[in-house]
Amino acid sequence: SAVHGAAEARAIDGNLESSDGVWRESNAFFTPLNILFLLVNIYTIYVLLRPTPPAVLPKEPPATVFRVFNPRTLLPFTGENDTPIYLAVRGRVFDVSHGRNFYGPGGPYSNFAGRDASRGLALGSFDEDMLTEDLDGPLDPLEGLGPDEIEALQGWEENFDSKYLVVGRLTAVGDEEK
Length: 178
Known about the structure:
With 178 residues, this protein is α+β, with helices and mostly antiparallel strands.
């Protein structure tokens, strides 16, 4: 036919016959839906065949050795410079590092960190004057506490027992070997 142009083509069954008589595939394969399907298949194959990373075991905390403290050797354990936080209650030293927001620097009970907290906990007072001033003297015998205060102290001790690890015992300076 005389009206055939160079770019004219006729479609038969999804194929195109160009004006030069050569049959060519139409671009029906490259539809957005087919491209999406191809990408989903490639991703699925990647996910199935990619190497799995080795399992990472949780890091064990360093072992804590039970030790004997005196008021001076307990004093550095205040949570400053990422040190553990220890406090003593009735001669037992607890690692309260997990309660850093309470016992660490700036916490409401931070003055008990690295110290014997027994009297302050028994009296419900978190003031500095509840702490033993003479670190080289005898431990506080907790004299003068009434039955209600002793009961309050026992409640605190039970609380510490249920939440924190006992890491040592507190003795007076010079009594560490007993």
